[in-house]
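Q: My collaborator sent me two sequences in one message, no labels, and asked for predicted structures for both. Can we handle them in order? The first one she listed is below.
A: Yes, handling them in the order given. First sequence, followed by its structure tokens:
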Amino acid sequence: MSGSAFEGSRVTVFGGVVNLALGAAKTVVGLLAGSRALVADGVHSLTDLATDVVVLLSLRLSRAAPDRDHPYGHGRIESIGSAILGLILLTVAGGILWDAVGALLAGEVARPGPWALGLAVLSILAKEGLYQVTVRAGRRSGSDLLVANAWHHRSDALTSVATFVGVGGAMLGPTWLDPAAAVLVAVIVAVVALAVLKNAAVGLIDTAVPEVVSEEVEATVIETEGVITTHGFRTRRFGRGFYVDVHAEVDAGLDLVSAHEIAEDVRNRVMDRFPDALDVTVHVDPWPAEMYENERSPEE
């Protein structure tokens, strides 16, 4: 296992332990203290366990070496994992919303106890800490999946803020503030879920790299000695990295070996300068094309 994969797995396992402890504590205390907001927050934390398992499996499988059936590798498994994570979050949001709205409409609202407030504060601090640790690991390793999981932790911290406000308000004033906070929790979770799903879609539909990166890659190709200009330049994201396809135009009078060496130089320069470049396909075209066409004999 590579260093980045090990770090990602270690951070995810640590997050799973914290999620288990927090989720169980918030759910139990929420039930005892009569706080729907804290129970919803606890359920959200417990679902993090399921997503942590998805993240661990995806990290391990996506880094498997290319094989006969998957010659381009397994990078898209990370995007699939992100999509599963987003769907889990969206389902959780729907369940929380259903329960909270039902309680408000039925008038089944109780005044929560003080333990609920203290646990909400603990959850805010713990989940924000997990966000910071996980997002840094994700950015260092270039893993969209780890970054998505980090935002899952951040969403839990935000839901705990909503829980704190709802529980505190219900203790001091109208009790409907507690289930109202649960509704806000559901909305926050749903927003994060949609963002995660959008990011997963980017990795599954051959989206180009950001324009600034694309321009830097093409400039690197043109700066290669022997390349006159380019056309047909394309990039596509694939898991943590990206592929490049480019037509490099070279002097039409060059022999095949020289043209091939230029193509190899192009590939090596791009691969060396951009660590996330998984491969570069260079098609060599003669320049100017009109001269090449004019010199061809009818028999050719």
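Q: And the one she listed second?
A: Here it is, processed independently of the first:
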Amino acid sequence: MTGYGIAKQFFRDAQLQVEIKSVNSRGADIRIRSPFDLKDKEFTIRKEVIESAVRGKIDVVMELTTDNLRLSGLINEKLFRDYLQVLKPIADEFELDGSHLLSSVLRIPEVVAGGSDHLNETEWQIVESTLDEAMDRFLQYRQEEGSAIERDFIACISRIEDCLERIAPHEGNRMNRVRERINSGLEEFIPVESIDANRFEQELIYYLEKIDFSEEKSRLSQHCKYFRENLDTDVMSKGRTLNFIAQEIGREINTMGSKAYDSEIQRIVVEMKDELEKIKEQTANIV
């Protein structure tokens, strides 16, 4: 859900710049900073951004600059001076370091905030068209990042599926080793002639069924297939769906690891977990 877009247009005697950037967030958190009074337009801006971006922690920053890059309208100069006149004598009196006073005052609410400059309809159209252009570039950035993430997803799922196939050759030996280990351990404590062979075989079959993970393998294969299918869909908010599928993939991998009783299978399970972690890290980056 990271994204970035910027657009510029001439506005009055200056240049208007609209910058949109976002980082990951479960919901939609939009912050707007502008040198204009946008109280009557804020809902329109938020609606457009949410409909296009869906979710993320999104900053929409509008700036006016002149040829010498002097910021225009972004600072409430009167309030800034008032705070500075009050704080500087206090800092001097207590011999405090005043080098950061300027930046501290700029962080005070309303010092750098929405301006009081009202827009007429023609000016609003310029602002709106600049916002639309920045949003288009923002979405293009997201699209390019999404394509790269999709390639990573496919590579990770392919490696998990490959690991699943590599487990098969070790399964037969695993069952035989478990059987031999139980049998030798039993003979160590109980004389052979005292063992009820039929009962032993029944208990052994029950135990081997408990550690059999053929169902987990089948479900894991289906989850991987389902993950691929969802990657190909054009629906919005597929990130949540992919995250849920990744959780199910993790459950099957963990169960297989707990039932493995084989060092080689455990090593392969670790490889699958490593690929799954890469997927989980990236699911937060898609809408």
